[in-house]
Amino acid sequence: MASGQATERALGRRTIPAGEARSIIIRQRYDAPVDEVWSACTDPNRINRWFIEPKGDLREGGNFALQGNASGDILRCEPPRRLTISWVYEGKPDSEVELRLSEEGDGTLLELEHATTSEQMLVEVGVGWEMALDFLGMFIRGDLPGGPVPEDAAEEFEPSPEMMRISQERGEAWAALVHSGS
């Protein structure tokens, strides 16, 4: 399951509608042009190949829902460089996710920032997004088999022992970073 991509982890702070927030920041480089990575992250017919297909009014000012996961509003959309969305999990504080893309050599640097007012959510969202970005990398490289991810995949998903080990290692890395106060 290893992505083959070097992942840079960082923490940040920013103000979101829910208040003062801390954020996890993940940076990964992909060997594809910015337009290709943007399309993989914003075209519902491509997103559903590596993540969960968004439903809703998918435009700036619109909204989205990911079955069995989160929903929110599309706050800002500046193709092919920036996408900002609210991120609402049932029963948890609202948060905000921003995707930023820039050219880096002959590839793309993707920076994902997930800001939340809940310190406890930082490790969880760090691990979750890092795993998702692995799947994005595999999709871009053409390493993902089959077609669209089934709508009920999140409910039926059984991680392999290797995925559990990677998730555990990433959880430890995020927890160390979050608790270091950086």
Provide a compact summary of the structure.
The chain is of the alpha+beta class and 182 residues long. Helix content is 31%, strand content 34%. The protein has a single domain, classed as 2-Layer Sandwich (Alpha-D-Glucose-1,6-Bisphosphate, Chain A, domain 4).
Write the layout of secondary structure elements.
Elements (H helix, E strand, L loop, with lengths): L6 E10 L2 E12 L3 H9 L1 H4 L7 E3 L5 E3 L5 E8 L3 E6 L7 E10 L2 E10 L4 H21 L11 H4 L4 H19 L3
Antiparallel strand pairs: 1-2, 2-8, 3-4, 4-5, 5-6, 6-7, 7-8
Helix pairs in contact: 3-5
Structural description of this entry:
This protein is of the alpha+beta class and 182 residues long. The chain has a single domain, classed as START domain (Alpha-D-Glucose-1,6-Bisphosphate, Chain A, domain 4). The chain has helices at 34-42, 44-47, 121-141, 153-156, 161-179; strands spanning 7-16, 19-30, 55-57, 63-65, 71-78, 82-87, 95-104, 107-116. β6 and β7 (95-104) form a beta hairpin. α3 crosses α5. The radius of gyration is 16 Å and the shape is globular.
